[in-house]
Each structure stands twice: as C-alpha cells, then as structure tokens.
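Thread: Newbie trying to understand structure tokens

Hi all, I'm a second-year student working on a class project, and my supervisor (Dr. K.) asked me to get a predicted structure for one chain before our next meeting. I've only ever worked with sequences, so writing a 3D structure as a token string is new to me. If someone could post the tokens and maybe explain what I'm looking at, I'd be very grateful. Here's the chain:
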Amino acid sequence: MKFFKKKRILFLLGAILILSSIYLFSIISNYVRDGYDRQSKFVLTLKSIISPHYVKKIKDNLFVLSNLKSRNEFLELQLRKYEQGFSGEKFKSQIVNIEGQNYTLDHFFTPFKRLDVNLGWNATTNSLRAHYLEIFKDEIFLISGEGQTIYFDKQNLKNEKLNFTNLPNNIDEILNLNNLELIGIRDLFIDNDKILISMLTKNEKGVTIDIYKADLNFKKLNFNLFFKSNEYWEKYNVFSGGRIEKFKDENILFSIGYSGVPNVAQNLNSLLGKIIKINLRTKDHTIISIGHRNPQGLRYIGNENIIINSEHGPVGGDEINFNNLNNENNELKNYGWDIASYGTAYDGTDPYKKSHSNYGFIEPAINYTPSIGISEILYFEKNQHCENKCIWATSLRANSIYTLNVSKNFEKLI
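---
Reply by user tm_fold:
Sure, no problem. This is what the structure looks like when written as tokens:
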C-alpha cells in the first residue's frame, strides 16, 4: 500500500514538474518571439549566471520554433511594409494605460529601412537606420538615416493611412561633390522656415559631424554646409551626439559626443564631448558645457533659463543633467566624462570616479544603473500627467517612457 502511495506521489510530482516546465517553456518562448525587457532584474540575474555564449546557443537551438515563428512574423510584416510604399498604413493599434487613463497607441509604416537588432547596437548599417521626426505647423517631417525626406499632414494621424509625400533633397549631390561617405543623419530641426540636419560623414581624414541648412519648401530641399565641427576620429562609433535644439538670442544648441576619443571631453581645444551654442546669423560658436559622453536628449527651458540633457553612460551610468544658466558666476559646467561616471567600462573594469561633486564636476540630476538606453527627453509643466514640473525620458529599455518630477529649484529628479 505504501509503495503505491509513494508511486502516486512521485507521479503527481512528475506531472507537476512536466506541466510547470511546459508552462515556463511557453512563457520564455513568448519572450523570445515577442521581445522582452533586457534590463529587468530577472533577465539581468540570468545573464549573470549563464554565459552569453550559452545564452545564444540556448536561444538558437532550444527555442528554434519560437525563433522561426518570430522570423516569419517579421518577414510578413516587412512584406506588408514594402508593398504599401508611401501609404503609411496603420498596421497595429493597442491600448496603453498611463496613470490610470487608457490611450490608443497606433502604429504606422514608414518607407524607411527598419533597425536590425540582430546586427547589434554598434553596427554601421544601423547608423543609417536611425530616423528623425519634426512637427512644423500642420505638417510632420521625417528624415531617414540615409537622408530621405518625406512629410504628411498631421491630421492624417486620425486616419488609417498617413499618405506620405516624398520631398527631394540634394544630400546625395553634397556627398558626391565632396567625396563623402554618409554614416548617418543624427537629427532634424525646423525653425522659422529653416530646416537643419546634423550629418555624420566620412572622408580621408576620418569620421566627422557637421550641420547643414536649407530653406523649407515643398519642392526640393537644397542643403548647404552651415556649421563645420572640424573634428575627426578614426572609426565609426555610436558616441557622436548630434542633437540640435532651439536656444535664446538667435542661437541653437548642438550636442557633440566624445566619439570614443579618450580624454577629449575634458579638452577645451576640442568640441568633442561638449554642448555648444551656434549663432544662426553669424555661425559663431561658444562652448556651453564640457565632460559629456554621448548627449542624446537636449532641451532648453526658456522661462527657467535651464538646459536639460540626457546621455548614455558606458555599462550603466545613463544620466539626465541640468545646466542652470542663472548662476551669477557663469562658470563653465563640467559633467565629468571620462573621469567620473556611475557606470563601468565595457571590458568589466571600473576606472571611473563615482562621486562627481568630490572632484569638481556637476552631479547628474539622476543616473540609471543598469542603463535604460536613455534617449530624447520632453519637459512639461502642469498638465493632466504633471502636477508641477515634469520630464518624460524616452528609453530603449522595452520601448518605454520614464516619468520624472522636477524638484523646486531644478536640483534633482524624483
């Protein structure tokens, strides 16, 4: 009797184990197929236990059916994308909840090439697949990483199709005339019927980043060189910055990353690792702040006279920084790179000072470790999602948005 009872218990335990394994396999398969938050605690714990080499082997072999299904779904979606051309068809709608209120999030096709995550974040190919958008009056303009410009009426966001119009430009002519290789567009900015782009190119001197400007019209955009950085580095990397933002007194702000060059962010004789202002009329430039790694988000808050920027850290250490221009001493602000960072190096070492203020640098208003892949930022005052002053930080971490409250005197983020 005891034997059968023991056997029955073992059978039940085995059945529970099998069912649990099937359920777990199903959940993980869905993650593999549909994507997951690569910075979640669960995923980071698994990464710390299992070697990346074996993670790839497990994913490629154990979850082969999920991978195939995901690949087929991707190819079907890409086929639909290319067949619809410039129609800008809506291909997905979903309900998202923000602070207890539901919103409809619509997804539309663009005619631009899609980022290929399988190539990795540092792939040159993906540099040509980062695209930018700007709203001007009743139109929404887009530029692809390859330099193609299109636009549509923003009222079309209410419809099933965006109906893009192609807007020719002379970017290829500029590249051919100056014997340049396009590495990628880095931003699109429109103000007072002028359109500016930051463009990453390569010639015999190396890789560089410059700004080009055109009169905004709907026939052809004829860009001319507006600002030349005269900075060159040997190989393409993702640390170039390139964000353009409206500033005061006929100036714009321009962020330039350190571009992988050691010590240069602290060197006042270089524009790498800096945020600068450029006069739209004279083209004269002045360094506003130094010690930046890769500033991706940039905002000037005119009524507060404060610059907000976000930038990628190395492994960890993503930052949002405040530059309060109301300070009487007008001291040049230094944000610490590549001496201080709350992140660590890619090779696993930690050569950085953690405290910024102890070494004369400005502390970040907030930092993220693990990294969230921080990108562009938005600033709000007193709306339905913000009681006082708030920042929305866009993140590559699971395609999310972080909502943050600004302290009274712009000293920190909560």
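A couple of things are worth pointing out once you decode it. The longest strand covers residues 181-191. The helical segments are 2-34, 41-49, 52-61, 64-84, 124-127, 171-177. Feel free to ask follow-ups in this thread.
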